Recover the amino acids of this structure.
């Protein structure tokens, strides 16, 4: 007879009518990808979702979206750990995800536990593992510790496998990262005409990123735009008026901003043409420390000639009032 008490599980609820798909951000090798997932069941500890991608057991992901509950909508921007994947047939999978409180216990600081830097060589990981295993193995008198040995084995299995380590490092770096630095620290928003053009590009990038990761709740409050840009709303009045007039964005009565389909076309058709836009979109948490503007290159040369257009829509665009020069 097994005397070990069974872990009590919380009952799971079914999603309410009107529940929208969630966005799952996951690491695929060295790349970050997104996929949509249908919510099947949930409670305060875990979610069960249906997706077209088979995630690896033990992988670390980010969940973005909202859960419709009887008391109202609950935001769900959380980290999670893949605990189980079940094939449903026809290329679909049921994925059980344990949420942050539980996931944070499942995602310990392996580097701190091993007492090594976050950028160790594989040989260092193996050497430290062998040394600590000789101390923590349960059969070692005096220093044996079963719990620490299990954690040590988990750390070694993750950090010694390139794919699992890339997934772990993506979550580790995000958890260690400070609050994103305001864009004004690295982008010139105040230099007369170029500063205004940079403001337009940055606002479009922020709203585009929100639309991509939260397709069903793409609104961004004015206060959040201020925080990410790094200066008061008074400096944004002209920028927002221009983008609204061009039909690139809309604004609700509560001052929440949303990018339109026209704005999405502008961003996607000009990403490779404008270094600032490309860098802002490369990482949804913000730009690299040094970022070129709409015009200025780091080597002092002009990125665009005075007569060239700043943003152009695709040739098949039939949006009324949209000319070849998009932001000026």
């Amino acid at each position: 007879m097994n005397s070990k008490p069974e872990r009590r599980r919380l009952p799971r609820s079914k999603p309410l009518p009107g529940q929208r798909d969630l966005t799952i951000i996951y690491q695929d090798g060295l790349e970050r990808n997104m996929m949509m997932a249908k919510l099947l069941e949930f409670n305060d500890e875990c979610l069960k979702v249906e997706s077209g991608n088979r995630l690896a057991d033990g992988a670390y992901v980010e969940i973005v979206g909202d859960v419709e509950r009887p008391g109202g909508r609950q935001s769900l921007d959380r980290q999670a750990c893949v605990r189980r994947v079940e094939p449903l047939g026809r290329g679909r999978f049921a994925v059980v995800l344990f949420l942050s409180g539980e996931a944070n216990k499942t995602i310990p600081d392996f580097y701190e536990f091993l007492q090594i830097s976050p950028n160790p060589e594989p040989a260092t990981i193996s050497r430290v593992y062998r040394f600590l295993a000789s101390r923590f193995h349960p059969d070692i008198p005096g220093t044996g510790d079963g719990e620490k040995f299990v954690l040590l084995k988990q750390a070694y299995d993750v950090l010694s496998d390139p794919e699992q380590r890339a997934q772990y490092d993506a979550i580790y770096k995000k958890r260690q990262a400070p609050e994103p630095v305001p864009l004004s620290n690295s982008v010139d928003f105040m230099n007369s005409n170029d500063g205004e053009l940079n403001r337009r590009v940055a606002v479009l990038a922020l709203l585009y990123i929100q639309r991509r990761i939260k397709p069903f709740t793409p609104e961004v409050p004015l206060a959040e735009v201020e925080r990410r840009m790094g200066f008061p709303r008074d400096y944004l009045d002209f920028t927002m008026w221009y983008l609204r007039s061009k039909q690139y964005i809309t604004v609700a009565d509560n001052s929440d901003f949303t990018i339109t389909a026209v704005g999405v076309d502008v961003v996607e058709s000009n990403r490779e043409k404008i270094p600032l836009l490309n860098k802002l979109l490369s990482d949804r948490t913000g730009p690299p420390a040094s970022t070129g503007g709409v015009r200025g290159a780091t080597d002092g040369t002009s990125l665009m000639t005075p007569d060239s257009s700043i943003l152009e829509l695709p040739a098949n665009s039939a949006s009324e009032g949209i000319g070849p020069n998009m932001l000026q």
Q: What stands out?
A: The radius of gyration is 24 Å. Residues 1-8, 102-106, 285-324 have pLDDT under 50 and may be disordered.
